[in-house]
Amino acid sequence: MTLIAFALGATLVAAEPTPAPTTPVQTSPGPLETTVPPAAGVLTLDEAVKRALENQPSTRTAEARVDAVKARIEQYKAELRPQLGVGATANFGSGKDFAGPSPNFQVGAQASWLVLDFGRTSAAVRSARLAVDTANSDLETLRQTIIAQVELAYFEAVARRELVGVVQASVEAETRHVNDAERLVKVGVKPSFDLAQAKTQLSIAKTQYARTQGDAKIALTRLGLAMGGASLQGVELPTGWPGPEPGEDSSVDALMNEAITTRPDALAFNITRRTAESAIDIAKLGLNPALNLTARLGYGASDSQNTGDWDTGPAWSAGASFNWPLFDGGRTAAQIDEARADRRAVDSLYESFEIGVRADIETAVVQIASAKEQLEAAQASEAIAKEALRLAEARYHQGLSSGVELADAQTNVVSVGADVVTAQWTLATARAQLRASLGRGAVR
What we know:
By secondary structure, this protein is of the alpha+beta class. It has helices spanning 4-15, 45-55, 57-78, 120-186, 192-226, 252-262, 264-284, 331-397, 403-438, and strands at 83-93, 102-116, 290-302, 311-323.
């Protein structure tokens, strides 16, 4: 005879999708004496996602990176703005006759302005702006990842709670069976073996109940971690599973077209490609000339004759400098080659990215179709198993069937009940994975 523990355990191992968090567990009535903290409120999936996006440290880290890259734009822009500074110098030196040394001291302010660098700074600013777009895309990709992780954890939490309900119903049924066996054995209709068997089945069901409760609490802890370390023990999760995902029955090509136009990491590849092209342009500007204006106003003192009679007075200077590097030993040419190689690497990475996205979409679509069939079959089997158990209980109550027949019927109900839950869990998980593959974000 197949035991309840084996049947339920085998079902979970065979059908269990990606691990995730759990929900609160309610105490069972009657024979199960368990204590669960009172519910600390109801946590919907939307609220779980919202709290995760607010509390995950990785999100704040990515936001800080966006701000840092934005600041880099102003750094580049500052290169083309006037610069002003103050300073002081003091030194000893000699003239052409090497007599001396004579002291010299000067203090003043100096202004400079890089008037023209023939596009180098402008190109750097454009590249920095693309870096901001990349950082924003990375942030959105991270958010999408967090959403997917929370959804998977949330669905596991719901499934673990539902499995607790399946086993709890089994405990209640086995308790009734023990009562029936005691009555029938007492009046001599059934042998004492039936009572021993019924008590064994009840003990197995209680053990399985304790195990599923522990799994549910662990899953709830994982959901809390996915939300950024929240404590969720005692929190209730609403019943029900999300409905069909729009387009889940569409062709893979149609879904692929949506993915490459909406996924933030796909958009990031386009930005990276433009950044690589910008790097080529910047490298080509390496041998361009630059024009710089300078002006200085100060006050100085010197004793050129070492007589102790210091010459003092204001001093100023103004000028322009033009620099044109005609040859740099091939450094600029090598930088151009490097930038072009980086551009080719981006194209290759994007091809690999598209292959991976298509594989994810195809996998999710297949899993959704398979889970739908599993769920339909499991629900039909559940209805049959429950009716068979009802008939077996009625026959046993009247002394017309054996305890083995009753135990088998109860085992089947638990097994197919677990099949229904795991099929619902698998379907919800596959739909969440499809959403993640398409870059849609949370459940709509």
